[in-house]
Amino acid sequence: MSGAALERPVFSAMLDRLRRGEFEVVIVWAFDRFSRAERFDQAIGEVLNLEVLGVRFVALRDPEISTPADGTRAARWELLIAMRA
Fold it and tell me: Where does residue 51 rank: exposed (0-12), middle (13-18), buried (19+ CB within 10 A)?
């Protein structure tokens, strides 16, 4: 199914499973393949929501968006969070 579709049932099912704690990591090819938010700060918010659930986000093509593996926050990640505020 196209990622451009407003309804993404498989994506929604994945989010439900994440909320139930079934996964620890989400791996995507690129950040823009994960989020369809209109604004960058909204898209970062979606990644931060995963972090709150204890789920690590990994974007292979966009490693600067990936949440740190060791739980620390690099300066680049803090900048992304500041952009969201």
Answer: middle
Helical (H) or strand (E) element with 34: helix 31-34
Is the distance from CB of 27 to CB of 20 less than 8 angstroms? no
Amino acid, res. 58: V
Confidence category of residue 47, pLDDT binned at 50, 70, 90: confident
Superfamily in which the 9-84 domain is placed by CATH: Resolvase, N-terminal catalytic domain (3.40.50.1390)
pTM, full prediction: 0.76
Conformational region of residue 12, where left means phi above 0, alpha means psi within -120 to 50, and beta covers everything else: alpha
Tokens found for residue 73? 């926050």
The stretch 33-51 carries a mean pLDDT of 82
Helix, strand, coil shares of the chain, percent, nearest 5, are 45, 10, 45
